[in-house]
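Lecture notes, continued. The same structure-token format from the folding unit now serves as the input rather than the output. Read the line below as a description of shape only.
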């Protein structure tokens, strides 16, 4: 299980909000890390 934006999801869940996925990849590629704000 993984927590994302305050909700618990299975780690193999399908994401419907692709904007969030693109933002996460962009942030990771830019900084090499994900912010606590994104993960909480």
């Amino acid at each position: 299980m993984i927590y994302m934006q305050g909700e618990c999801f299975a780690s193999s869940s399908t994401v419907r909000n692709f904007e969030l996925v693109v933002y996460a990849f962009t942030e990771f590629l830019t900084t090499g890390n994900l912010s606590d704000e994104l993960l909480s």
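Point for the exam: The mean pLDDT is 81.
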